[in-house]
Amino acid sequence: MKKIIISLLVINSFLFISCGGNSSASKKNILVSGSSSVTPLMFKLAEKFEEANTNYSVTVETSDSTIGVQDTISGKNDIGMASRNLKENESPELDSYLLCQDGIVIIANNDSSIKQISEEELYNLYIKNTAIGSISKAISREDGSGTRSAFTDLTLIGKKEPLPNTVEILDSTGKVKTAVNSDSSKLGYISLGSIDDTIKPLSYKAKSQIEYVAPSVDNIKSDNYKLYRPFYIFTKKGKEMSEGTKAFLDFIDSDVGKQVINESGYVAN
């Protein structure tokens, strides 16, 4: 998957060290890469960290969870991001840290009449191509996506049988939102923290439930909303961390860092 680089460092070509400012060359960079679902939260954490630590800059590369793991194991980054649990063959190579819990939200176009969806309806749309009113097209993420992995584990959609060709595959959270926003017949799923007014979040009812439950931080905390998964960050095991990496990890685990996480629509660890 092609990486998209989001740099938090704004370079002013008219700013000189002699004028008392910090030039880009004097800043020590921290590279974070991986899940496109974790990226919006990481961007906010990095921005807040830089405000209090002007001698550091944080660069966030967004791709998917698997690439984030591979980058960390190979030493290409300082910190990796994943929106799924680590696999058995990945864990021995990494020191992982639980960042937060995040909801997976089923989304529809704002103009569609649908407001809620059951586990059975969701399964039938994705696997049997059974329409739900005006909703007739399903969108999923690509194979390396942590969001897809968690969605599969939680709903069993694509677990025993492959997704049919009728399901559209997109490789980022942003692309899923854009596709749903532009077509009222489409339905997809994204991170709770990525919800905005361009798409409609649907209430969800698992097989074990009687009532539909809205996706929210409070409903995740109470375990009433069943579609949620962990966000992880990780470093390479045995690799000596730079002072900047240590400082950023300490900030994320601080009260200020947890406040950023909670205010962004996630459940801090």
Automatic annotation (TrEMBL):
Residues 24-255 form the PBP domain. It holds the Pfam family PBP_like_2. Gene3D superfamilies: Periplasmic binding protein-like II. SUPFAM superfamilies: Periplasmic binding protein-like II. Coiled coil: none annotated. Keywords: Signal. The keyword Signal applies. This is Phosphate ABC transporter substrate-binding protein.
